[in-house]
Amino acid sequence: MQIGLFFGTFNPIHVGHLIIANYMAENSGLEQVWLVVTPHNPLKNKAALLDDYQRLEMVYRATEDFGKLRPTDIEFKLPQPSYTVNTLALLSEKYSEHRFSLIIGEDNLKTFHKWKNYEYILKYHQLYVYPRLTAEKIDESLVNHPNIHYTEAPIIEISSTFIRNQIQAGKNVRAMLPDKVWKYLDEMNFYK
Questions:
Q1: Whole-angstrom Cα distance, residue 122 to residue 120?
Q2: I need a surface site. Which of 10, 14, 79, 99 has the fewest CB within 10 A?
Q3: Please, which pLDDT band fits residue 138 given cuts at 50, 70 and 90?
Q4: Which is more confident, 81 or 174?
Q5: In angstroms, rounded to a whole number, what is the distance separating the alpha carbons of residues 159 and 155?
Q6: Which CATH architecture has domain 2-156?
Q7: How far apart are CA 156 and CA 145, in angstroms?
Q8: How far apart (Å, rounded) are the C-alpha atoms in residues 91 and 73?
Q9: pLDDT tier at 47 (50, 70, 90 boundaries)?
Q10: pLDDT above 60: residue 135
């Protein structure tokens, strides 16, 4: 099975994440999209994160009605901070019957050369890139690389940081969150 991996801290998961994940599952040739809940992105401040299992619970609630979307806690078993190349190695070993591809935003493609062992990733895995609003140029070697596939996914500019800040400011962000996630956040009093 061809599996797309959509990594994120999902702090919280929002409708933008679901729109991208579902678009990839329905339009890219991927058979499923696994949302990989990252305990600690090396480029983010861990102190601002909710507990790993609380974020996993939100992803589970957000995806349970989508047949092709699955949450995974695979990175919970790896040393932190999490590196994509290590996650791919573990998944490829544990699920050798599947082929794993990455789903990344165009903004991440611009810095892809800074990822740990990015050449290895690019040699053995496909990348599905969704558009972002950006003015920066992408390295020419990546623009035409045979393992990089650009998609016409909708451009979504909602961020988890914006949602957290709005909640802290007492604003209503319900429209930006899956209903089950909104209810969970509200019940647990998160980000207030």
A1: 5
A2: 79
A3: confident
A4: 174
A5: 12
A6: 3-Layer(aba) Sandwich (3.40)
A7: 24
A8: 11
A9: low
A10: no
Beta carbons within 10 angstroms of residue 28's beta carbon: 19
**Model pLDDT for residues 117-133, shown as the tens digit of each residue:** 999 999 999 999 999 88
For tokens 């062992």, the residue is 117
Token couple for 187: 């019940």
User: What is the C-alpha to C-alpha distance for residues 148 and 81, in angstroms, rounded to an integer?
Assistant: 25
Q: Which two tokens stand for residue 169?
A: 């400011």
Structure token digits, residue 99: 């082929």
The position carrying tokens 């991927």 is: 30
DSSP 103-116: EEEHHHHHTGGGST
> Sign of torsion, CA 157 143 141 89?
positive
Amino acid at 138: I
What DSSP element (H or E) covers 164? helix 160-168
